[in-house]
Every structure is written in C-alpha cells, then in structure tokens.
Amino acid sequence: MSVKEDIPAIFLEKISPRGLEAIQKTKDFVHNYCLPADHIYHEQLSTDPKLRWSSIPPVMEKLKKKAKELGLWNMFLSKHYKEGPQYTNLEYGLMARYLGRSYTAPEATNTAAPDTGNMELLAKYGNPYHKSKYLQPLLDGEIRSAFLMTEKGTSSSNALNISCSAIKNSRGNYVVNGLKWFASGAGDPRCSVWLVMCKTDDNSKNPYRNHTVLVLDAKRALASGKAKLVRPLHVIGYDDAPHGHCEIEFNDYEVPSDEMANVVLAGVGRGFELIQSRLGPGRIHHCMRAIGVGEFALLRVAHRANNRMIFGKPMKERESFLNKFAQSRIDIQRCLLLVLNAAHKIDISDAKSAQKEIAMAKIETPRTISEILDWGIQVFGAEGVSQDTELARMYAHNRTLRIADGPDEAHLAQLARNEAKRFDEIEKFFASYEGNRAKVNKL
C-alpha cells in the first residue's frame, strides 16, 4: 500500500518527491526485512552472561548493509546538517513512524537513540577533532555512544540539579566524580564515546552556566579503573542487552592531558544549552516511533481478533471490541497530528519556537500509546505478557518515554505556566466581546 494513504492530507503537499520515496522505502524495508529479523535478532542474542554483553547478533550487520544499499541511512539528520541526507523533520518523522514498528529497524538505519542525539550535538557543536574521531565513525555505524546525564538520587528532570562534578586539579586536568545511571547504550561493546553532563562551576548568580558537556573516550575511561560500569539496569524486567541502560561511577577519574584540549563540547558552562538543543527534535523522534508501536499493536490485535473465538463468535464481530479498536485509531491519529505539527513547526522555525507543540506531543503520545498497548495485552490475555508477542516488550519501552527526556509532570507544568501567561489576554478578549455586543445592539 502506498504511504500516501497513511499521511494526513494537510501534510502530504509539504513532502518532497524525494522525501515521499524515502518514506515508502522505509515502510517496505521495515515490513520486508526488519520485522522478520526481530525474532532472529532475539534468537541470536546469547543467554550466556559473558557473551550477552560482548557480542552483537549477526543479523544486525546484514540489515545495516541492506539499509545502506537502499539509501536508508542517517535519515534523522535534517536539512540543518550537511552531514546527513537533509530530509525535513516532517519527512523523517513519517519514516520514524515505520521504524518504530520494529525492534531492529532504528539501529539498522543508524537512527537509534542515543546515537541520534549525540550525532546531532557533535555535528552542531563539535570541533574537527570530535568530528573526525567520533562523529564520522558514528555516522558510518562503526561505533556506538552514550549520553550520561541522569543521576541516582537526583531529580534529573531539572538539569540544574546535576551534581556529577568535573573540577580541574593542579595539573589543569578535569577530575570527574559522581554516579550516573540509565546511560542507554553504554553496555554495547562498540560504545566508544560518552557525552557527560558535569557540574564545572557553582555560580549562584547564573546557575544555567554551571554545567558543561564533556566528551570522554569511553574505553579509555573504563580501562583506567577510575570509571566503572557498575551494572545494567533493567526496564520492567528487560535488560536490553547488549545495548543496556547502565549505571556508571566516576571515582576521581582524571581526564588524560592529551584529551584536555578537546574534552569540552562547545564551551565551558554551555551544558544546559546543549541538552536543550539535543532534546527538542529527539522528543519528536521518540513520539513518532511510539506511534509506529501503537499502529503495530493494532495490527497484532486485529490479527488476534480474526483468529479468536469468544463464546462461539469471532472476536472481530464483538461490538465492544470494534468500538475500542475504532477509538484507538482515533487516538493514534490525534497523536500523529500533534507530532507532525510539532515536526513541521521545527522545520519552519526551530525547536525553541516549537516548544509548546513539542510539549503537547511529548505529553500525549507516550501515555496514549501505553493505553493502547495495555489494551492489546489484555486482548491477548496471558500470551500478551509473555515473550511470545512483542507487546510486553513494547509496553516496557514505551512506558519509559513518560519519564525519559523529562517526565509528563514537568512538561505539563511548563505548558500550563506558559498558557497561564495568556490569561490577561483572555480578559481583554471578553472585555472587547462585551463592548462589541453593545455595538451590535445599536445597529
């Protein structure tokens, strides 16, 4: 089926012929290669604890080779970056919708988090050294990366609370101390670079200049013994090996002298600015993949309904089932419009200007898709919570999106505060409304 039928009419005319072709290729690649490969990937993943975190299922490299042949590579790098294929955020968002249906598809096309956000930061702020040593191998899919921000025992949704310190010693080298966790991607044996949010100052007059992003050679840091990968954290029971969401401890890790010239990304004190830049488009990518998850869940549910008898009657003929299915379609379409609107707003202005639209999409999409996944699990019964369907794993991953990149409550509170600023305008509106009514009465 042509992707034109999947794209809301209001956005169809805004997509270039080249973008439309790439969206169709993405859909076909996911359906023909990635979805069948998902089962193979998990079969190839070792259950031996030693090998589970040191080897990559071979099917992944085969998928990456095919994706490159099709030109489906690094699509997330928008028109603002010369290093990528320069699709719009709207066009890539529609590709991510299909990528989200498959576990393997994001990595197969080199569009997996956290590498996408890290590559954007390195492309936008990195110096020639960063781009040569880390960005190009990341763009080529040769290495992986991790972003170390979240801290144990710290309300990390407010970046000003980040306390992992980087203080210069008598030799002029940064010494890093602190405990990071949920560092996605840090367990991967190919992970070669960490972008670490650190507190480098304690300026109370301008707390937004207290933090800096350091670019650390991950393998060198671990080899020192002063940076330790403590453990992979499970997400609702899933360890996501070999990718992982890891706890990492810095205990007087001194950045080597030969790295000091290039250890700071963009500049000292610009950490808060950088993470805001990183998270804007990333939230849209997460939401578009979540929509793909919801759509695939409905495919699974429909297949179940076609083949399930309930008290002598096919499930697909049950009115309660059909009503819920139809409502789920409406709910997904609502989220799709919110996300595409945010993506388009970024394209025509920037992420800062689209703050309200991004917040709305980020709040509404993960919780809506979680509700749909929960219903899908219920439709399958005991099978739904087992490894025999994708639904349980999808639910675990999607549930984290209500916490990752800022919890629902933080986005909702910010959105509410911004909307409240307009209340005075509402008073003016109703004042003019009363005045205009008087004018109409005199006509």
TrEMBL record:
Q: Which residues form the Acyl-CoA dehydrogenase/oxidase C-terminal domain?
A: 269-418
Checking InterPro entries in the record gives: Acyl-CoA_dehydrogenase (IPR050741), Acyl-CoA_Oxase/DH_mid-dom (IPR006091), AcylCo_DH/oxidase_C (IPR009075), AcylCoA_DH/ox_N (IPR013786)
| Positions of the Acyl-CoA oxidase/dehydrogenase middle domain | 146-252
Transmembrane ranges? none
The processes (GO biological process) annotated in the record are:
fatty acid beta-oxidation using acyl-CoA dehydrogenase
Q: Where is the Acyl-CoA dehydrogenase/oxidase N-terminal domain?
A: 61-142
UniProtKB keywords:
Flavoprotein, Oxidoreductase
GO cellular component terms, semicolon-separated: cytoplasm
Q: Which GO terms describe its molecular function?
A: acyl-CoA dehydrogenase activity; flavin adenine dinucleotide binding
Task: Check the record and name the PANTHER family matching this protein.
Answer: ACYL-COA DEHYDROGENASE FAMILY MEMBER 11, MEDIUM-CHAIN SPECIFIC ACYL-COA DEHYDROGENASE, MITOCHONDRIAL-RELATED
Q: Can you state the subunit structure given in the record?
A: Homodimer.
Q: What is the protein name given in its UniProt record?
A: Acyl-CoA dehydrogenase
Q: What is the lineage of its organism?
A: Eukaryota, Fungi, Dikarya, Ascomycota, Saccharomycotina
